[in-house]
Design brief:
Blueprint lengths: L3 E2 L9 E3 L23 H4 L5 H8 L4 E3 L2 H7 L7 E3 L1 H7 L4 E6 L10 H13 L4 E6 L3 H13 L2 E7 H6 L1 H9 L3 E5 L5 H9 L7 H13 L4 E3 L6 H7 L1 H12 L6 E5 L4 H15 L5 E7 L4 H4 L1 E6 L8 E6 L21 H8 L4 E5 L1 H15 L5 H20 L4 E6 L7 H8 L10 H8 L6
Parallel strand pairs: 5-15, 6-7, 6-9, 7-8, 10-11, 10-15, 11-14
Antiparallel strand pairs: 1-4, 2-3, 4-5, 12-13
Helix pairs in contact: 2-11, 3-5, 4-16, 5-6, 6-8, 9-10, 11-13, 12-13, 16-17
């Protein structure tokens, strides 16, 4: 009975998988935020290196991972696949539960899987400074780590409510040399505009993106880096699912359902896209994205063109959205607060290849406690949404008396999120559900395309 299934470093995938090669419906092109015309690669060149823009748009199925990136991946990859025997026993379920654990990276989450190649490609193009945003802090930590490795200065606009709630994430970024600024700030026109309207604004990812993009376009030595949503980010994360496929084969199993938490789409895309290829090719596998009821982008948003940021500077993309001026509640513990969803994930939802469910945060933390008290790992609040989804699937198998194989991605640990656990344990977390009226109001401001 093996609790963990390992791959050797020599078995690490040498290529990323690009779902764009196999999607039944092509993605609509990104639009210029002013002209509303399809954006040209050179127009995006102020934000991203050409290598990443090529990855963003190519339909090539397999993209070679540079040796320099593989060498750094080897600090923590391949990551282990666990069989959750103790959780299965506690639930008294006939289901087999497997989880791919990404919390062993230096930043404690899956985010370095894309931070490392993004820093690498920027450095190759002569960029020495990166501006980015972060919500709960995993992405800012990861890019600060990657910037330190490649000698790149990293500026992180951190959503203010998270900046205040998660001081240790800030310290982690600063330990790796990142400069962390609470957003909205008075350093950018976008930030000052928000503060003029609401001096006590909690901030949002949309606002922080605006600040980072504005920062990047004002300096020739600076590019912008994004930790989720975009095609090339999901591409880099597919190393998770590709490793999991190899490990499931070693276990002599194949999942009936693959589960991941979803905010912008990178973690879920990473575990699910290689299995989406299987599904497109006829395999019977369910792909389940789990999001918070406080930010129900897929389950309550609309599929439409929308701005990627609050100040309307980022490209306009077709995606599930709650509206670019969506302001998430400060009470929501953890990340998963972006107003939009990856265009890839959104399109696959529209094509009925991905299912989605939303949970309130108290049941999510209840699931996290069940998991931590059986499997030992304390999940990040974001990852705990996937835990909740997996437990519900296992209990459903129990009710139906059917065997089922469940695979989920445990995208990070919760060591920096214990204040949220403290609130849960003391009954101080509210089960907030974002109101329909607020969503309808935000959606009236979608761009006219």
């Amino acid at each position: 009975m093996n609790n963990k299934i390992y791959l050797s470093e020599s078995d690490m995938p040498k290529e990323w998988y690009n779902i764009l090669a196999d999607m039944p419906t092509p993605l609509a092109p990104p639009l210029h935020p002013v002209t509303m015309q399809p954006m040209k690669p050179e127009e995006l060149g102020a934000l991203f290196p050409m290598a990443l823009l090529e990855q963003e748009m190519t339909s090539q199925r397999w993209i070679k991972i540079p040796e320099e990136v593989l060498d750094i991946y080897a600090l923590w990859r391949p990551s282990p696949l666990y069989r959750a025997y103790r959780l299965e026993e506690a639930l008294k379920t006939p289901a087999k539960i497997y989880y791919k654990y990404e919390g062993g990276s230096p930043a404690g989450s899956h985010k370095p899987n894309t931070a490392i190649p993004q820093a690498y490609y920027n450095k190759k193009e002569g960029i020495n400074r990166l501006a980015t945003e972060t919500g709960a802090g995993q992405w800012g930590s990861s890019l600060s780590f990657a910037g330190n490795i490649f000698g790149i200065e990293v500026i992180v606009y951190m959503v203010k409510v998270s900046y205040e709630q998660k001081p240790y994430r800030r310290i982690m970024m600063e330990t790796w040399g990142g400069k962390v600024i609470p957003s909205p700030s008075n350093l950018t026109a976008a930030g000052r505009a928000v503060l003029a309207q609401d001096p006590n604004s909690n901030g949002s990812l949309g606002i922080a993106i605006s600040e980072a993009v504005e920062d990047a376009i004002q300096r020739k030595d600076t590019h912008y880096a994004l930790g989720s949503v975009l095609n090339h980010v999901l591409l880099h994360q597919t190393i998770i699912g590709l490793e999991a496929q190899k490990q499931m084969k070693l276990a002599g199993a194949y999942p009936d359902v693959v589960i991941g938490c979803v905010g912008g789409g990178s973690n879920f895309g990473g575990i699910a896209m290689p299995f989406a290829q299987d599904k497109i090719n006829g395999k019977n596998v369910r792909l389940l994205a789990v999001e918070p009821a406080a930010c129900p982008t897929i389950t309550k948003g609309v599929y439409a063109y929308d701005y990627g940021d609050t100040a309307k500077m980022a490209p306009v993309v077709q995606m599930h959205t709650l509206g670019h001026d969506f302001m998430p509640p400060g009470i929501h513990a953890g990340g998963l607060r972006y107003h939009g969803m990856s265009p890839i994930i959104s399109r696959l939802v529209k094509d009925n290849l991905i299912d989605a469910v939303a949970y309130k945060q108290n049941p999510v933390f209840e699931a996290a406690l069940t998991f931590s008290r059986t499997e030992g790992i304390i999940p990040a609040p974001e990852a705990a949404h996937a835990v909740k989804g997996a437990i519900d699937e296992a209990l459903k198998a129990k009710e139906e008396g059917k065997e089922k194989t469940i695979l989920f991605c445990l995208s990070g640990h919760g060591h920096f999120d214990l204040a949220s656990y403290d609130k849960y344990l003391n009954g101080q977390l509210d089960d907030y559900e974002y109101p329909e009226a607020a969503i309808k109001e935000s959606l009236t401001k979608l761009p006219k395309v």
